[in-house]
C-alpha cells in the first residue's frame, strides 16, 4: 500500500492549494503542510526521542506529527487540557530532545529545545526533506490512564498506522477529497481515525475545539460552514449533537458518513441517527489504543438495528485475529498490536504476549461472538469509559489517597442504559469533620485532584463515609460501597 508520507506528497502534486487542515480561520494547504513539516523534520532529524507535540487544535499540531514521522522519531501528543504535573511526568519518562509548542503561551518546562513556528523564519532550511521513517519505527506514543497512578505510553509502529489507515480508506464509501470532522483531542487515539485517512485521501481535516464543544451554536455554525461529509467522533459527542434539532439529512445534505469508536454505541443513539440520516453510512468500530485505534467494524443498517440490541462491534479487520481467553477476555493479535508501553516492561509483560509468533494484546474486554459478529459485553477489571475517555478507577483512587485528609477512597461509576454517566468518589477521612467543613473539603479535594489528573477524571460528587465495609477476605467491598450510594 501507499504509505502516509507518500500520499501526502502525491496530494501536494495533485492539489497543492487545497486545504489540508482547518481550524476556524487557521488553514494549511497541502503545499504548506508539506513545506512546514519538511522544515520542522529538518530541525529534529537527528533526534532519537519522540517529538512532544503540545497544544490543542492548531493545524500546526498536524505539522508536528507529520514532521516527526518524516524525521523517523515519531511523536507524543499532549493536549492543553492535561494538568502540568501529568505533562511533566510524561516528559520525564520520554526525555524528549525537542518539544513542539503550538500555543501562544510559553512552556515552563525547563527544557532546552522548545521549538515554535518562529523556526520557519530561519534561513538555510532546505526546501525538501526526504522521509527517514521505517515501518518498524514508532510513529506515535499515546498516553492512557494507568491503574498504578502513572499513565501508560502506548507505542504504535508506522506500519501499524499505515495498515490501519488503509483499512479506513477501504471502509470509506464516499471516496477522496472529502471534508472530515475531527472531534477528539489529539492525545486520544480516536483523532488518528480522522487525521490519516483524511490526509491520505486528499481531504480537508476540520478540527473541533473545546469551545465549540461547550457552545452548540458555534459547533452548528462550523458544521454548516464546513459542509462536513465524514464525521469521526465518540458516540457521546454524537448524542450531544443530536440535541441540535436541525441535525438531519434535510439541513446537512453533505453529511454522508459517520465513524464511531472509543466506547459503546448505544442502540438508541444509532437508531435516532439513522432516522435523521437515512441514507448515511454509519459505522460502529471497536478497538483499544494498544491495537492501533480500531480492529472491528460494522455498518449499522436498519436491519442491524432491528436485529440486535445491544449492537455488535462487527467483524475483524484483515490481518488481525481475535480470540477469547479462558475468562472470555478478548485477545487481539497481528501487526496492529503495539510494541508495548514505553519504558514499562512490567506492565507491558502483563498484557502483551506472543501467540504463535504473532504479537498479541490482552484487552481486558469481555466479548462473545454471535452470527459471526463480535459483541463487547463488559470488562474484567476496573477500567471505564466516560464520554469516550478511558480511565482506570484505581488511578483516580490512587490520587485521592495521596491527599492528606483522605484515609481511604473508592470511585464508583454510575451507569445509565449500560453507559457510565458520572463518577462518584467515596472517601473515608483521616479525622471526622462537621458538615460545614466537609463542603470546603469537597472543594479542596477536587482542586488537589486537578493538579494531577485531567478534568474529565475528577469525580463529580464526593461522598464521605466513616468507614468502608470489607469482604470476607478483608478487602474493601467495592460492590457493597457502590450499592450503598445507589440506595
Ligand atoms: P481507548 O484505548 O481509549 O480507545 O479505549 C479502548 C476501550 O474502549 C476498549 O478496550 C473498550 O473497552 C472500549 N470501546 C472502544 N470501542 C468500543 C465499542 N465500539 N463498543 C464498546 N466498547 C468500546
From TrEMBL:
This is D-alanine--D-alanyl carrier protein ligase. It is an enzyme of class 6 (ligase). The lineage of its organism: Bacteria, Bacillati, Bacillota, Bacilli, Bacillales. Residues 395-475 form the AMP-binding enzyme C-terminal domain. Pathway: Cell wall biogenesis; lipoteichoic acid biosynthesis. It catalyses: holo-[D-alanyl-carrier protein] + D-alanine + ATP = D-alanyl-[D-alanyl-carrier protein] + AMP + diphosphate. CDD domains: DltA (cd05945). It holds the Pfam family AMP-binding_C. It comes from Staphylococcus edaphicus.
